[in-house]
Structure to design on (472 residues):
């Protein structure tokens, strides 16, 4: 007598594809049902017919024949079961809610576990990550509106997005940060089994980065920057140089962090505020020198509330930091300080008469040039604070603490030795013996006649020199 085995039909996905679930020798099997034409079945009546065809071998009385006929069906069922499971999981991972899904993963980075999803600071690592994802999801909506699931992003689409990033002319460093985020984003979702697919960004290569260390400014340049500034801008530059605080920390410095009696500033830097467990270890304490003290003391006591720089602080917190950076760069340039690397930066195209060329289609001035590479900016004040302190003999441990660096190596990265310091410290090494006689070299640039005489003496013949001397 033949055995009767029944299966269970169910539907998966928006396209309502039919699957069959049944048991063979205690093993649970699932298979996507296909019609005689090999296409997926989407109607109940066709699904029942296909299920009957598939279950027919189970009704054979001969067990050997039953197993032979089922061998290929079981293998196909296992593959289909995995596909069905993948479809079920992936259907819950939409592009629209991708960020929320990522923030729910247990394997997400520690930096993303420090804040509730609706309280992420804009100027933070997870804040940057959220921005990268918003940009990507917006691009997907515009370029591939038909793709609604994260699993639908293919390596080809990831390559398209890479080209889009390159068209924005962002720096190699920023490009690498974005790509690294999406590699990590998909890796986290895969580790937590929120999606079942391949990482589409896995084979996107990083870009090589050029070293672009900002140089310290000279004392004369810093003096010019402070003297030629007014109002909050003048105090901002003084804070940047005399405290070594970063741009965001100077803009948002609070009066409660300034103690004019003890003459110290105590602040937890924004960059490390959420990265260290012990808040006391994060506090940076910087002494207030006389010059900065007088500037701060000039502000009336009844105005010493909230931000030390009210306008800059409010603008920075509302996201206008790019505009503030532009103000800083223009001030540097007005003081005769070249801020961009030579040959970079967008320039206006001029005609033969020196007038700007207008684009006929857009009506705007035509411009050309490479992305501006900033070599000197507000951060150069921080470099200067560290380098000048090192040259004056401030212990490196104190500089490291004041700068909020986690290691001496980071402080070393900032230190630059000036020509004066190099010459001054050169005489530290002395030998216990008489020094040889030294003929002091003359400055050929200030004595061109003497330089020309030396050149003639080296090139003229002896007879020519004798004739010249005889006529003197």
């Amino acid at each position: 007598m033949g055995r009767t085995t029944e299966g269970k039909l169910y539907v998966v996905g928006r396209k309502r594809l039919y699957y069959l679930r049944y048991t063979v020798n205690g093993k649970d099997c699932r298979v996507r049902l296909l019609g005689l034409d090999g296409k997926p079945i989407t109607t109940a009546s066709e699904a029942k017919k296909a299920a009957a065809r598939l279950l027919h071998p189970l009704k054979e009385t001969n067990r050997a024949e039953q197993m032979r006929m089922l061998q290929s069906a079981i293998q196909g069922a296992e593959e289909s079961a995995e596909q069905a499971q993948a479809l079920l999981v992936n259907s819950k991972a939409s592009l629209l809610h991708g960020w929320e899904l990522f923030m729910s993963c247990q394997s997400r980075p520690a930096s993303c576990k420090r804040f509730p999803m609706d309280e992420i600071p804009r100027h933070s690592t997870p804040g940057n990550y959220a921005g990268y994802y918003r940009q990507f999801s917006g691009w997907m909506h515009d370029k591939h509106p038909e793709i609604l699931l994260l699993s639908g992003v293919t390596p080809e689409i990831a390559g398209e997005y890479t080209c889009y990033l390159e068209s924005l002319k962002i720096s190699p460093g920023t490009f690498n940060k974005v790509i690294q985020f999406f590699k990590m984003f998909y890796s986290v979702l895969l580790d937590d089994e929120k999606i079942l697919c391949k990482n589409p960004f896995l084979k996107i290569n990083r870009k090589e980065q050029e070293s672009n260390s900002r140089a310290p400014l000279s004392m004369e340049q810093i003096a010019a920057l402070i003297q030629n500034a007014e109002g909050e801008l003048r105090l901002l530059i003084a804070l940047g140089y005399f405290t070594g605080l970063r741009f965001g920390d100077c803009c948002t410095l609070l009066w409660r962090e300034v103690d004019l009696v003890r003459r110290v500033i105590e602040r937890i830097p924004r960059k490390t505020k959420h990265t260290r467990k012990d808040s006391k270890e994060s506090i940076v304490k910087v002494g207030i020198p006389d010059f900065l003290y007088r500037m701060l003391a000039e502000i009336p006591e009844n105005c010493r509330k909230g931000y030390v720089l009210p306008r800059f602080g409010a603008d920075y917190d509302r996201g206008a930091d790019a505009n503030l950076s532009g103000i800083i760069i223009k001030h540097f340039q007005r003081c005769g300080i070249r801020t961009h690397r030579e040959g970079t930066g967008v320039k206006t195209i001029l005609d033969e008469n020196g007038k700007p060329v207008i684009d006929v289609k857009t009506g705007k001035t035509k411009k050309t040039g490479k992305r501006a590479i900033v070599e000197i900016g507000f951060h150069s004040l921080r470099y200067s604070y560290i380098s000048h302190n090192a040259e004056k003999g401030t212990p490196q441990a104190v500089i490291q603490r004041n700068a909020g660096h986690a290691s001496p190596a980071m402080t070393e990265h900032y230190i630059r030795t000036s020509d004066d310091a190099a010459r001054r410290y050169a005489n530290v090494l002395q030998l216990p013996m008489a020094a040889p006689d030294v003929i002091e070299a003359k400055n050929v640039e200030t004595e061109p006649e003497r330089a020309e005489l030396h050149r003639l003496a080296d090139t003229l013949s002896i007879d020519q020199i004798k004739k010249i001397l005889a006529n003197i």
